[in-house]
Write a structure and sequence with these properties.
alpha+beta; five-stranded antiparallel beta sheet; MetI-like fold; elongated
């Protein structure tokens, strides 16, 4: 009788596919990642940071529609990287309620959020004095629908939510990468060599562990000045401790295995034994911790942005969006704060569920 042998990776993948919540959470994360990658291509507002303000239509509900004048203000050519960085505003958008012509001049009535009837104003643009109203409407007006409404500055909430996804995904990725580089290095060295080296590294781990994470992040952010890059570094430098502790514990056990003894007998260097023989065999718990740290990094960044020391305006961040609109929760426009809050909750929960699914899939004791 022949038996088909499957690798541990194949078995883990099969177990993961049978986990409904694991597959669902991975799908949610991939959707968020695609939105973050192609945000400027799919967002209704393609300008940089989706920062086109229309104060006259601020705080409008989802599905709000308005007519806009689109008057050219720039003739800058498009660039290939506009899909990543966003475009400079090519037109000035002005919400209007009505149009008319008078003595060869095209006039518009500005839109008023309170429903007041404002006076007509002339359209200030060269070359339209003799243009027919119907032609002007066709060339320089459009109707825009704000699917998630507008924020308190009249910006498209959906566009800023999409671009804000980049902040959360990127902060999680970079912070986890930094924490893995530091945590795996220190944990592996401490666990493998032991002795004084282990004592010194464990002292550093315990000191870092005793400092509240948020306070340390705030201190690092203030010391390095407020910037997007600073948030990445600050969060990453506070998340390596748990990785180091787990790697150290796994290393202490793994270095006593026979394959490590055999590698030493063959004269392999310590670096080769650690990097090529031990670490690949203890990656399962590290992967699970990385998923949890990804979620923690998103929460920390949101908290920093809420406090005003995270991503700086006009860069959209879910945390700063909650900060701008949390007072609306007691009014009839609570969705302005709830929408980014639900996005944070959904993404964090997806990473936590993914971590649980990976833990079950990578556990060799389960069947």
């Amino acid at each position: 009788m022949s038996h088909t042998s499957a690798s541990l990776t194949t078995l883990a993948l099969q177990k993961f596919k049978r986990n409904f919540w694991g597959v669902l959470s991975l799908s949610v994360i991939l959707i968020y990642a695609l939105i973050a990658l192609f945000a400027y291509l799919i967002a209704p507002d393609h300008t940089q940071y989706a920062n086109q303000m229309h104060v006259s239509i601020h705080s409008q509900p989802p599905g709000f529609k308005v007519n806009l004048l689109q008057l050219p203000i720039s003739n800058e050519p498009t660039h290939f990287m506009d899909w990543w960085t966003g475009k400079q505003a090519q037109v000035e958008e002005i919400p209007f309620a009505d149009l008319k012509t008078e003595n060869g001049t095209i006039l518009y009535r500005p839109y008023d959020v309170d429903g007041n009837t404002l006076d007509f104003q002339p359209v200030k643009m060269d070359g339209i004095s003799e243009m027919e109203l119907s032609r002007f409407r066709e060339s320089y007006t459009t109707q825009k629908t704000f699917l998630l409404g507008t924020d308190k500055y009249g910006r498209d909430l959906l566009s800023r939510m999409m671009i804000g996804t980049r902040i959360s995904i990127s902060i999680g990725f970079v912070a986890v990468l930094i924490s893995l580089l530091i945590g795996i290095t220190l944990g592996a060295v401490a666990g493998y060599f032991g002795g004084v080296v282990d004592q010194v590294i464990m002292w550093l781990i315990n000191v870092t562990w005793s400092i509240p994470t948020l306070l340390m992040v705030i201190a690092i952010s203030i010391a390095l000045e407020k910037s997007f890059f600073t948030v990445f570094v600050a969060v990453g430098l506070t998340m390596w401790v748990e990785v180091a502790r787990v790697v150290r514990g796994q290393m202490i056990v793994a270095k006593e295995y026979q394959y490590v003894t055999a590698a030493r007998a063959l004269g392999f260097s310590h670096f080769r034994i650690i990097a090529r023989h031990i670490l690949p065999n203890i990656m399962a718990p590290i992967i699970v911790i990385s998923a949890a740290n990804f979620a923690a990094a998103i929460l920390i960044e949101s908290g920093l942005s809420f406090l005003g020391i995270g991503a700086q305006p006009p860069m959209p961040s879910w945390g700063s969006m909650i900060k701008d609109h949390y007072q609306y929760i007691i009014l009839d426009k609570a969705y302005l704060a709830l929408v980014p809050g639900i996005a944070i909750m959904t993404l964090v929960m997806a990473f936590m569920l993914l971590g649980n699914a990976l833990r079950d899939a990578l556990d060799v004791k389960t069947t």
